Amino acid sequence: MTTGMENCDKPLFTFGIIADIQYADIDDGFNFKRSRKRYYRNSLRLLHNAQKRWSADTVKPRFILQLGDIIDGFNKRHDASERALETVMKEFDSSPVEVHHVWGNHEFYNFSRDTLMRSVLNSTTDSEAGGGHLSSCEIYAYHFSPAPKYRFVVLDAYDVSLLGREESSLKYQQAIAILKAHNDNEDLNHPPAPVGMEQRFVKFNGGFSQDQLDWLEGVLSLADNKLERVTIVSHLPIHPSSTDPICLAWNYDALLSILQAHKSVVCFMAGHDHDGGYHRDDSGVHYLTLEGVIETPPDSDAFGTVSVYEDRMFLKGYGRMSDRILMYP
């Protein structure tokens, strides 16, 4: 949807968005259900297209949001995780623009949580993000303010998960208890039901711990008091109307109730569901799920540039990502 509003005045700032690159130096393949084609090598070319577009923009993006699954899990079985990550980061590094990385399931297929914390994918080490991260070294969550009155919060959707957690850890035990209560399949990547909300209880999803939810509550309360506008990002979607139910965070409802209680929240952005999705709730908060690069054909694209204004954000989508005007609540 576009009405020309994006051209009325100069934005306060812009930022780029891209999700589910899942690069691997292997031939094209298919998704878990073998129902969708995946273009592993081509994803790097589509990232290059995005970088080229952002570099050519009259107003250069202040930062890029990379919403998780930067390389594919197949790299692990080919002992190519480090090499694949270096290849993708070389493309990102071709531009001086700061990149904020979100962690998805494929990050954990390739690396341990400890390794990720020490890697280039830990954006809390960036100067602009410094001081805004959750104090627990076990949770990858932080916030940053690119401009006065605007704040972005990066959440850890695999905080409670079987992925990236040691089997002896409390959070692994919590995760296995949650899954076993809802999913009795031998292979926990298979959903417990063919349709409906129960599908989300699979191994490739995760949830948010109470510590992280409490931290977010505090961040949003301060933002309310400062009259800030907040955009929250996570690899996993949290609104049932913005995604296929199989892609939802396990305790999406707990996070939704927090967001809907704070007037500062304007938008939630996620990846994971490669088809993308969108919903605006009754309070006016936008839930945007980005189309995945990995399942985008070579003759298309899947990235966007968001222009931020006093009363709205405008998403200019490229390829199969739609234009959207996101008015503030």
Automatic annotation (TrEMBL):
Monomer. Residues 14-275 form the Calcineurin-like phosphoesterase domain. Its cofactor is Mg(2+). The lineage of its organism: Eukaryota, Metazoa, Chordata, Craniata, Vertebrata. Keywords: Hydrolase, Metal-binding, Zinc. It comes from the Eukaryota. Its EC number is 3.6.1.13, 3.6.1.16, 3.6.1.53. GO terms for molecular function: 2',3'-cyclic-nucleotide 2'-phosphodiesterase activity; ADP-ribose diphosphatase activity; CDP-glycerol diphosphatase activity; manganese ion binding. SUPFAM superfamilies: Metallo-dependent phosphatases (SSF56300). This is Manganese-dependent ADP-ribose/CDP-alcohol diphosphatase. It comes from Oncorhynchus mykiss. It is an enzyme of class 3 (hydrolase). It catalyses: ADP-D-ribose + H2O = D-ribose 5-phosphate + AMP + 2 H(+); CDP-glycerol + H2O = sn-glycerol 3-phosphate + CMP + 2 H(+); CDP-choline + H2O = phosphocholine + CMP + 2 H(+). Belongs to the ADPRibase-Mn family. Pfam families: Metallophos. The keyword Protein transport does not apply.
